[in-house]
């Protein structure tokens, strides 16, 4: 099992009820989101989100390393 | 000196603009996004911008770097506010200097479009009726796509 | 309060911009033309703008009025310098406020294009080599058409 | 004969050597420019210029009234 930190922002944070959590998980980021989506009841399908690893956009097929910082990025609305 | 910055408090445009002034630049185009008193037909009291700051800064810097290679410009910069903003507050500023106005306008427009599309910043709007919501444009299946500032 | 003005001395942008700020405007686009240190490959020391002031003011006002009807904008303004200018001096400023950025950018670009094409203002450039000349772009058969700022 | 004032700007003023002059002329603005072009040796054909009457752009076929202010407008280079 790999331990990582997951950050939640905006609507995802409201849905999760927390700003971040520590997760123990095997597999890629897509599998991690699927697990967390089931846990928290997120409405967004994976295709509506982007994902980041250690502060840079990443691929859903990337596998987090021990101590990684992961964020699921809901559709942005800056500007 | 980075070309993109996140500001958690009001910022002055004048010194940012001054840094773009160059003897070889004849044209300067800028864009500012201000908080409006309405959005999607609803009266708005203000809003809060939240960012994933580390990722916003690196993605913003990438956009500005890319603009420097895509357009014949001399320099460019962008600053985006986060935190609580009232109606009339400055939310985002883009400035571009270039030898000619074509490149200045094109780059300025491209930068604000990319910032709105790619930088992890989210807008939480407060309405006169008392409610509030996060705006998540592309995936918002319950409302039409929001394309405004 | 006219939207177009000829200025025979340096002017401040800040109060002009402030007049365009409105609670219903979410977007502001601006353009500035600065005196460059070169034009058409020649080192320039500075320039002088001359205008047929009465006609320039009426034609400029027509352009701004037309912009208000052509684009979905909240307000717009333009000021053009005349007299002696040094490298780096502000020659012309255009500002446009609108609900959305599309109209703000389009109107700003249209206004500066029309001002350059229609308003009776002429540029007299002084060069590092000591000579000077009037620029009369479209009819200048001895040089290529000058499209720069 | 109608008396009018003609203003010269930029390259036209340099070519004329004067900023303005009083003219007595019959006919339209096109005929007036042809006469003044011959007098001062202006290089520009009429098609390269615009013309104004009393501070507003006019047609070459317009005829100036007594006391009119006329200007021939060389290609502009503001901005």
Describe this structure in words.
The complex is a heterotetramer, with two copies of chain A (79 residues) and two copies of chain B (149 residues). With 79 residues, chain A is of the alpha+beta class. In chain A, 24% of the residues lie in helices and 30% in strands. Chain A is built from two helices and five strands. The termini of chain A are far apart. Chain B has 149 residues and is of the alpha+beta class. Chain B is built from three helices and nine strands; from the N terminus they run βαβββαβββαββ. Chain B has helices at residues 14-18, 53-70, 101-118; strands spanning 4-7, 27-34, 38-39, 42-51, 73-81, 83-86, 90-98, 121-127, 132-135. In chain B, strands 3, 4, 6, 8 and 9 form a five-stranded antiparallel beta sheet that branches. In chain B, helix 2 runs antiparallel to helix 3 (101-118). The radius of gyration of chain B is 16 Å and the shape is elongated. The two termini of chain B are 27 Å apart. The chains are: A alpha+beta (79), B alpha+beta (149). Chains in contact: A-B, B-C, C-D. The interface between C and D is medium-sized, with 33 and 20 residues. Strand 2 (27-34) of chain B pairs antiparallel with strand 2 (27-34) of chain C.
Shape of chain A: globular
Question: How many strands, which pairing sense, and closed or not: the largest β-sheet of chain A?
Answer: 5 strands, mixed
Overall geometry of chain B comes to elongated
- The chain-level mean pLDDT of chain B equals 91
Q: Give the quaternary arrangement of the chains.
A: heterotetramer
Task: Give me the count of strands of chain B.
Answer: 9
| Rg estimate of chain A, integer Å | 12 Å
Q: How many extended strands of chain A?
A: 5
Query: What percent of residues of chain A adopt helix (DSSP H or I)?
Result: 10-25%
Q: In what range is the share of β-strand residues of chain A?
A: 25-35%
Regions with little confidence, pLDDT below 50 for 5+ residues of chain A: none
Give me the strand/helix succession of chain B: EHEEEHEEEHEE
On the 0 to 100 scale, the average pLDDT of chain A is 97
C-alpha end-to-end distance of chain A:
40 Å
């Amino acid at each position: 099992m790999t331990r990582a930190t997951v950050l939640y922002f905006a609507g995802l944070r409201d849905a999760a009820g927390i700003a971040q959590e520590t997760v123990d998980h095997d597999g890629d980021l897509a599998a991690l989101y699927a697990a967390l989506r089931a846990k928290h009841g997120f409405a967004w399908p994976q295709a509506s989100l982007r994902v980041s690893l250690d502060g840079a956009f990443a691929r859903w097929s990337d596998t987090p390393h021990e101590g990684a910082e992961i964020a699921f990025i809901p559709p942005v609305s800056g500007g | 000196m980075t070309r993109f910055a996140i500001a958690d408090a009001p910022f002055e445009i004048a010194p940012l603009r001054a840094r773009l002034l160059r003897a070889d630049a004849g044209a300067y185009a800028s864009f500012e996004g201000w908080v409006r008193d309405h959005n999607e037909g609803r009266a708005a009291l203000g809003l809060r911008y939240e960012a994933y700051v580390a990722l916003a800064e690196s993605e913003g810097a990438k956009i500005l770097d890319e603009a420097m290679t895509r357009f014949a410009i001399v320099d460019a910069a962008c600053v985006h506010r986060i935190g609580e903003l009232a109606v009339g507050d400055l939310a985002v500023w883009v400035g571009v200097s270039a030898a000619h106005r074509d490149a200045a306008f094109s780059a300025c427009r491209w930068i604000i479009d990319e910032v709105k599309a790619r930088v992890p910043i989210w807008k939480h709007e407060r309405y006169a009726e008392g409610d509030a919501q996060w705006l998540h444009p592309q995936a918002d299946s319950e409302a039409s796509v929001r394309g405004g500032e």
